[in-house]
Amino acid sequence: MSTLELTGSKRGALIVFEGCDRAGKSTQTEKLVKYLNEHGFTAVKGKFPARSIEPLGPIIDNYLKNEVELCDRAIHFLLSANLWEQESYLKNVILSGKTLVMDRYAYTGVAYLTAKGLDLNWCKSSYIGLPLPDIVFYMDVSLKEAEKRDGFGSERFDKREIQEKARSVYSSLKGPEWEILDGRQSIDELHENIAKMSLEVIQKCGTTPLQDLWKNS
């Protein structure tokens, strides 16, 4: 019997936004958190990587800004450790009945380091056992469109070759909990659809236990 069944409490949902760079993930994360908090739910924003969490976050931040050099395996382990550092906090938020909305999650770490040449399953193995999202909103934007948006090219992975490869890896990571969204839609149109699906997920998952990510991979 799960903790939820024993206590009779309802957990919150784990909602994740994923996609390549400049797809609109951060904008929709902010809008959804604001919407939920204004409509009777308690929602908390999370971000991966968590660049401010020491000691690993600032190192990752410097790497992504091209201020330090690290080999691909080293940054892979730093990224996965950065998310594992947050695991207890993430679970506590969800099990306390709050909905956690993540701007990127484990899929990002796998997609980009696989795009850099590491083995897909090897990358996934470092994230096995983290909470499985209740829904993943994948913001589907073409590279041509992303390149037009403000800020593209400012960080290490903002390169056409890496973005194209990461997009392909994302396709192989999609599971039944994924919803593919057309990033060409307006911000408000996307938000309306996201809010509707999020409310449905929150209602459905309340009494179900958290599952583990890639447990049977």
Descriptors for this entry?
single chain, 217 residues, alpha/beta, Rossmann fold, 5-stranded parallel β-sheet, 10 helices, globular, disordered N terminus, EC 2.7.4.9, nucleoside diphosphate kinase activity, dTMP kinase activity
Give a verbal description of the structure:
The structure is a single chain. By secondary structure, the chain is an alpha/beta fold. It has a single domain, classed as P-loop containing nucleotide triphosphate hydrolases (Rossmann fold). It contains 10 helices and 5 strands. A 5-stranded parallel beta sheet has the order 2-3-1-4-5, sandwiched between helices. α2 (25-38) packs across α10, α4 (72-85) packs antiparallel against α6 (106-115) and α6 packs across α9. The longest helix has 19 residues, at 187-205. The chain is globular, with a radius of gyration of 17 Å. Residues 1-8 have low confidence and may be disordered.
